[in-house]
Design brief:
The chain is mostly helical and 120 residues long. The chain is 67% helix and 3% strand. Helix 4 crosses helix 6. It is flat. The N and C termini lie far apart (76 Å). Keywords: Signal.
Length: 120
């Protein structure tokens, strides 16, 4: 009888784990909307709504992951590969050094445009 009780307890535990995995893989209506809106910024949403209604709107500027990586991960003209990858920019730039002045200046210009859209 004890073996049967242990078997039933283990079986119930396995079923709970299995059904929990199934529930986590099935998106609910509330979660899918939440995930979609988490990728859309406020100014992007305003742009979408304005253009949908035929109103002229300035397209929002986005700061690319690699521009963020160049500004955040360059240290003494060498990019930190882990930092770059954590910001969704690849770590390999082949022949170019992303920490060269020309790339840093371009990244600074992009950041300036990005942050100015919130001020104006």
């Amino acid at each position: 009888m004890a073996k049967f009780t242990v078997f039933v307890a283990v079986a119930l535990l396995a079923i709970q784990v299995y059904t929990r995995e199934i529930r986590s893989n099935v998106p609910s209506a509330g979660n899918s909307k939440k995930n979609i809106t988490s990728f859309i910024k406020y100014n992007e949403l305003v742009y979408i709504l304005e253009t949908r209604h035929g109103n002229p709107a300035k397209k929002p500027t986005r700061l690319t992951p690699c521009a963020r990586a160049i500004l955040s991960c360059c240290e003494e003209k060498v990019i930190n590969e882990r930092c770059s990858e954590s910001l969704k920019c690849g770590a390999y730039f082949f022949d170019d050094n992303p920490c060269d002045d020309k790339f840093i200046i371009d990244a600074l210009d992009a950041a300036k445009l990005f942050y100015q859209q919130f001020v104006n």
